[in-house]
Amino acid sequence: MTLTFHFTPLNQEKADDIIRKYPPNQRQSALVPLLDLAQRQSEGWLSQAAIEAVAAFLGIPFLKALEVASFYSMFNLKPVGKHHVQICGTTPCWLRGSDQLRQACERHLGIGFQETTADQLFSLSEVECLGACINAPVVQINDIFYEDLTPYTLVEILKGLAKESTPLC
């Protein structure tokens, strides 16, 4: 069975709007925002079919699009849980306790890095710099950044997300 990917009509309009921001001979510059749009449509990950569709839309080789998708940690090449917990592992966050955050997540969720809970609710990943070093340690859950965390506050956030309550900010 061959999987296919097509932007929804609304996302096709968004893709067309993104393309219009670039000169006609520089369409390939829209690769990152279009991959992001495809990933958002695909519940947080990029299938090969989605990457192929974006590459075809831009008129670039599939491998070029795959290189970009596999380089950036913002793109997921396999399914992730509803709440993708990304812990910054760079030096400032590590010095301020990101290892303890990882351990708290692993104990609370029962998974390690690059794993997803059995209920598909949480995935756990380590990422490089989230760009908020002044407020380390930092965790990104989907599109929300949480700063100055302790293991206790992170577990409370996870509990709230599991209950589908509004995340603590």
Question: Briefly, what is this?
Answer:
Helices cover about 45% and strands about 10% of the residues. It is α+β, with helices and mostly antiparallel strands.
Structural write-up:
- The chain is an alpha+beta fold and 169 residues long.
- Helix content is 43%, strand content 12%.
- The protein contains seven helices and five strands; from the N terminus they run H-H-H-H-E-H-H-E-E-E-E-H.
- It has a five-stranded mixed beta sheet, covered by helices on one side.
- A hairpin with a 5-residue loop joins strand 2 and strand 3 (122-127).
Q: Categorize the overall geometry.
A: elongated
Give the proportion of residues in helices. Answer: 40-55%
Approximate strand percentage: 5-15%
Reported for the largest beta sheet, the result is: 5 strands, mixed
The average pLDDT value, as a whole number, equals 92
| Sequence of secondary-structure elements | HHHHEHHEEEEH
The class by helix and strand makeup works out as: alpha+beta
**How many strand elements?**
5
**Spatial strand arrangement across the major sheet:** 2-3-1-4-5
Low-confidence stretches: 165-169
Number of helices: 7
Radius of gyration: 18 Å
| N- to C-terminal distance | 43 Å
